[in-house]
Design brief:
Blueprint (H helix, E strand, L loop, with lengths): L2 H34 L4 E3 L29 E9 L5 E9 L5 E10 L15 E4 L14 H4 L4 E5 L4 E5 L25 H17 L3 H24 L7 H14 L5 E2 L1 E2 L1 H11 L21 E2 L6 H12 L14 E2 L2 E2 L3 H28 L2 H12 L2 H7 L5 H22 L6 H19 L9 H11 L4 H27 L37 H18 L8 H8 L7 H23 L3 H5 L13 H17 L8 H13 L1 H8 L12 H9 L6 E4 L2 H8 L3 E3 L6 H9 L3 E7 H4 L3 H6 L6 H10 L22 E5 L3 H4 L6
């Protein structure tokens, strides 16, 4: 880490440390004071069993008042919590003479201690302060012309004592004047005193005034923004997942007015659309057969739910997205070489803002469930989780889905809270139950697998939403169905499948579709789909790693261990217990759905992928794990209260170590191999907009190259020619190291002569392309592509075809 990084990290750590120490210390004290304020009581006289020390005479030496009214006293007993955690009780005796405090009795401290002090006190009297003093504490003294007789009338209030005095010279009319001995001269104040007063005002402003808000909110906000800046400078990386590039190119098509269409063509999508349109009368000619697959024009997308692409499309309408690769600017390029892709970076910053919004929701959920301590610490741990930062810059919809899930958890919590009130507001509960259904539906339209969250949601409402639980459950389910149904109808009309190609994920990885070949197949075989054995093997095979250790390592932090250990601890508050039930139901549901829906995407990127649903429950795990940490911390016996903050600091440091190590050394943001956007943009620029490419990274060609590209078919013979001859001609082939670096035996020899592995081996080792293969031209010299192999039907790099043609 260079000097700038060290300085920024140090400043952020110091700011966060100072802010957390002061806010937690003050908030805990204020909260405990308020909790004990209900025990305060006003009594007319001391308890019969308690006697105060002598010395409270009616006439106080050195304090004479011109009144003959008898002295009146009121005694106030106050119980408060000191900073050391002890409960103290003080008895205040207020006097009408001067309106001050005549004496203070320390009820927890005896006046004298016997030799056997461990067992009992010598007397029943308590220690008394100000006893026998000539002047009451806080008594108002001064010239009789200003104070009058000096006798106050005392009135008991619910939470204190009020003293009132008759105005001086009342009823004397014109005799109201200033004392004659008041000097008309102006007192001169020294500059040193002015400086002292200024420093005092600043301290008061910071500790009590508006500066307190600055320390509690503005300061942590600056620290968090500094963390975002530092992470983007040192640890940011361009997109590397299929789903991120696919969603981004789809959003660009929407923003450009091309509708919900895609440039990334899946052979399975061609099959579904073709089967749906097979019986329709479509326009055709002798030279152009009917386009049953809808690929000769804009192809409808069947893989992505609509919410996240629509959000990104709105973002592209607002922000200045530049889709051409920039090799000149200092931030986007590095000495003329590609460094950062501007649209990738803008989408990453947007997702980082969603992460910050999720942290705010986590704070309020933790505060409602527990207290400020748990809320602040859980928020810090969320922002210090390196896994969330990697998701935020990945371009996936995870951050948006996380915000939706946390909003759903807040509504669940609100519904449960309203259901426990003595006078249940059924209309308000019904409203929040409907919001639960709406949020679940929006989440399902962000990621289809999230729709299974409706099961834990309706179970929770059925159990804990109050007297009208059946109606509340029905409202949530109906709202969920209303949100989801129109999109299902759209998919059925286009492909005959309610969730498009995404609904076939359960077959991927089973004996029905091994090695992730289902989406690359033009003629999939669904004869044995009703046989349950393959799904059972897939479920058990994918659940085993979760129970063998992945759950305990969830989020890259051992905080999940505290969460699971806390399951043995019972909470007294019903809201906390029930929220933990909801968290466990969601965790169990996500485990099953993730195991059954696992595809080759999880093999390529085990943690950062759209199939990772367990990460959504991680904030709730952080909240309950933090609560258990404070319970254990309260049981610790420390020699000083300040050491508690040392323990908290060490706990934060240990949990945030992965993030620190991620930013320790600056890494390259380029995701090569296999993605190198300048080469992809250059090869795609040789193609016309209506021509079709084929690649092993079609999502990257669609995003960086802005050209229609079909995924590599299952083989280089029958499936390729079925597409090329009968659906749409393939004009170029772009293969990266994903295929060129195939395993020699498994992917080249055992896969057969028709495999793409064998095709690549012959092309690289023998410089030989099959004679019947329509693409024979490859760029050479200055036009050569270093990131992969490019074959086309003509020497397009010489023709100079660009995107305008």
């Amino acid at each position: 880490m260079d000097r700038t990084g060290i300085i920024v990290v140090t400043i952020c750590a110091i700011l966060l440390g100072v802010w957390y120490y002061e806010s937690i210390k003050y908030d805990a004290y204020v909260q405990q004071q308020r909790a004990l304020s209900n025990t305060n009581s006003i009594v007319a006289q001391p308890s019969p069993s308690t006697t105060f020390a002598a010395g409270a005479s009616t006439t106080i030496p050195g304090f004479s008042l011109s009144t003959n009214a008898p002295e009146k006293t009121i005694t106030l007993t106050n119980v408060f919590l000191a900073f050391d955690g002890r409960t103290n009780a003080v008895c205040y005796t207020f006097t009408s003479r001067g309106g001050g405090i005549k004496s203070l009795g320390l009820l927890d401290y005896p006046e004298t201690i016997s030799p056997r002090w461990k067992n009992n006190a010598a007397t029943n009297a308590v220690s008394t302060l100000n006893a026998g003093a000539p002047v009451p504490v806080l008594a108002i003294l001064g010239d009789p012309n200003l104070l009058g007789e000096g006798d106050f009338s005392l009135t008991r209030l619910d939470n204190g004592v009020e003293g009132n005095q008759r105005k001086p010279n009342a009823g004397r009319g014109k005799n109201r004047h200033e004392p004659a001995d008041v000097s008309p001269e102006i007192t001169r104040v020294s500059s040193r005193r002015i400086l002292a007063m200024t420093l005092q005002d600043i301290i008061h402003y910071i500790e009590v005034g508006a500066g307190k808000r600055f320390l509690r909110f503005i300061l942590p906000a600056m620290a968090v923004l500094g963390l975002v800046f530092l992470y983007d400078i040192r640890a940011y990386k361009n997109f590397s997942t299929t789903e991120a590039m696919d969603s981004a190119q789809l959003a660009r098509n929407i923003a450009q007015g091309k509708g919900y269409t895609t440039l990334f063509i899946r052979p399975l999508s061609l099959y579904l659309v073709q089967q749906k349109n097979q019986g329709k009368a479509l326009p055709s000619s002798p030279d152009s057969p009917p386009d049953y697959a809808q690929v000769k024009t804009a192809h409808p997308d069947l893989a992505n739910p609509p919410v996240y692409p629509l959000v990104l499309a709105g973002l592209m309408k607002i922000l200045p997205f530049h889709f051409a690769v920039n090799l000149k600017s200092g931030f986007w390029a590095n000495n003329g070489l590609f460094w950062r892709y501007q649209p990738d970076f803008l989408i990453a910053v947007f997702n980082e803002l969603l992460l910050l919004a999720s942290a705010v929701v986590v704070f309020f959920i933790a505060k409602k469930l527990f207290d400020n301590r748990v809320a602040w610490l859980a928020t810090i741990l969320l922002l210090g989780c390196e896994l969330f930062w990697r998701f935020s810059v990945s371009g996936l919809s995870t951050m948006l889905l996380l915000l939706i899930f946390l909003a759903l958890a807040w509504c669940i919590l609100k519904t449960e809270e309203l259901g426990r009130e003595p006078q249940v507001d059924t209309v308000q509960i019904l409203f929040w139950a409907a919001v639960v259904g709406i949020l679940t539906g929006i989440g399902a339209l962000t990621r289809y697998s999230f729709g299974w969250t409706i099961i834990p949601a309706v179970i929770f409402l059925l159990l804990f939403s109050g007297p009208g639980r059946l109606l509340n459950t029905l409202a949530a389910f109906v709202a969920f169905a209303i949100i989801l149904t129109p999109w299902i109808v759209r998919n059925l009309a286009i492909s005959g499948a309610p969730f498009g190609t995404a609904g076939y994920a359960i077959f991927d990885g089973t004996s029905l579709a091994p090695d992730g070949q289902l989406e690359r197949s033009l003629h999939p075989d669904f004869l044995d789909v009703l046989w349950p054995a393959p799904y059972g093997r897939k479920l058990l095979g994918n659940l085993a790693p979760l129970f063998q250790g992945d759950l305990l390592k969830l989020g890259g932090s051992w905080l999940s261990v505290l969460f699971f250990a806390g399951l043995l601890l019972g909470f007294s508050r019903p809201g906390v217990r029930r929220m933990r039930y909801f968290s466990m139901m969601c965790l169990g549901m996500f485990m099953v759905v993730q195991a059954l829906g696992r595809t080759s995407l999880s093999d390529e990127s085990p943690e950062i992928n759209s199939e990772n649903l367990l990460v959504l429950v991680l904030p709730l795990i952080f909240i309950f794990g933090t609560a258990l940490f404070f319970i254990l911390l309260d049981q610790m016996t420390l020699p000083a209260v300040e050491l508690r903050y040392v323990v908290i600091g060490l706990f934060i440091a240990l949990c945030c170590l992965p993030l620190f190590f991620a930013m320790l050394f600056k890494t390259s943001p380029v995701r090569y191999p296999p993605y190198y956007p300048p080469d992809i943009e250059r090869t795609a620029g040789w193609m016309k907009p209506n021509e079709l490419m084929m690649s092993d990274v079609p999502w990257a060609v669609a995003w960086y190259g802005q050209r229609q590209c079909v995924w590599l078919t299952e083989d280089a013979k029958s499936q390729f020619f079925a597409l090329n001859d009968y659906i749409k001609p393939v004009n170029a082939l772009y293969l990266t190291i994903r295929t060129m670096d195939s395993r020699l035996v498994s992917d080249c020899f055992r896969a057969g002569q028709d495999s793409w592995g064998h095709f690549t081996l012959d092309a690289l080792s023998r410089n030989q392309i099959p004679a019947d293969f329509p693409l024979h031209r490859a760029p050479s010299g200055t036009a050569a592509i270093s990131s992969g192999m490019f074959l086309t039907d003509a020497e397009r790099w010489k023709i100079g075809t660009d995107s305008s043609q």
